[in-house]
Amino acid sequence: MWARSLAESMGALSDLRVLDLTQVLAGPYCTMLLADMGADVVKIERPGGDLIRPNPPYAESSDEPYGGYFQSVNRGKRSLELDLGDVEDREAFLSLVEEADVVVENYRAGTMERFDLSYETLRERNPELVYASIRGFGDPRTGETDRQGQPSFDLIAQALGGVMEITGQEDGPPTKVGPGIGDLFTAALSAVGILAAIHHRDRTGEGQYVDTAMYDAMVSMTERAVYQYSYTGDAPSRQGNSHPTLFPYDAFECADGYVVIAAFSDGHWRGLCEAMDRADLAADYPDAASRMAERESLRSAIADWTRDLATADVVDALEGQVPAAPVQDTADIFEDSHVEDRDMLVDVEQPGAGRDVTIAGSPIKMSETETAPGGRAPLLDEHRAEILGDDASEAEGRRTAESDD
């Protein structure tokens, strides 16, 4: 029943068939990574579509079928609108499961069971199926906890996982990291788990359940805080942009913005002191221990040097020998030749608008196979006939007849 996409992919995952039941950010980003590497991702959307379809911004007007949020993480996918509570739609979904390699969902635990579409049910139809779930607190199948069933978003995951407690200025409140890392990092880990499960299936013929929890992912991301607490007994807290064991490793104000400098090795420290014309500092603080002991006074010395210089002048003075970079905004990124040369900004069609829009490209580059967005995000149910073939026409005929009665 599964009809392949009419646009043939040259990606490494071009033979992978993925049923994507996810919505909002974590799940769609996971399947986006797979689609960028060539997987045929069919986005199964509930009646009315993904919740974020109408989210702004828009290229020109709110009459467009979707905004930038949906476009960015659903590029290169196909769309099929199904009501899993409807008998015929449920059977259409199950027929796709029989030919799928992967099913991904990010519902609360128990939701698929209410549709009688649990992992166990789907595995009966396809024993080689890899079934992946992305939830706030995981699934009871892989470790039951009292939090499962609770709603979770990026903010919740960052708060519980310790990210906010170690982010922000020392005298300020706990601070959320800007991008939705509770979603995005979890999504990337889920993609790794899916591909590992596919590798296992190809060796053994056995599918399995892949469970990735947002809370777990944030604990993994804050691995430094975990080992610091274990080794010292002290729970790390906020330190601004500095590092607890490395110096200098911080952001410094310039005349036109900020620059970051990471000169914590002895060689880099000497290079920084030479650029500052402060040979005395290189001589007085030759090793990491001495620099850490006087980090506040040394930070002031570096800040005095950068304060009246432009960010470009600071970076140029360090001549690429000392790790340093300007703090860029998105407009700067759009003008950065590195970003252009690496195809990290990609133009795609925006339905309903008179111009293309730009989205982030794939950060995974491969020497022999393509890794890039496979076109714009889909319109709702755009690929019904393409995916279901004759079955789609029959189902549409039945629905039309029922509506005429």
UniProtKB/TrEMBL annotation:
SUPFAM superfamilies: CoA-transferase family III (CaiB/BaiF). The keyword Transferase applies. Residues 354-379 are annotated as: Disordered. It holds the Pfam family CoA_transf_3. InterPro entries: CoA-transferase_III_domain (IPR050483), CoA-Trfase_fam_III (IPR003673), CoA-Trfase_III_dom3_sf (IPR044855), CoA-Trfase_III_dom_1_sf (IPR023606), Scnl_mescCoAtase (IPR054905). The keyword Transferase applies. Keywords: Transferase. NCBIfam families: Scnl_mescCoAtase (NF041294). GO terms for molecular function: CoA-transferase activity. This is Succinate--mesaconate CoA-transferase.
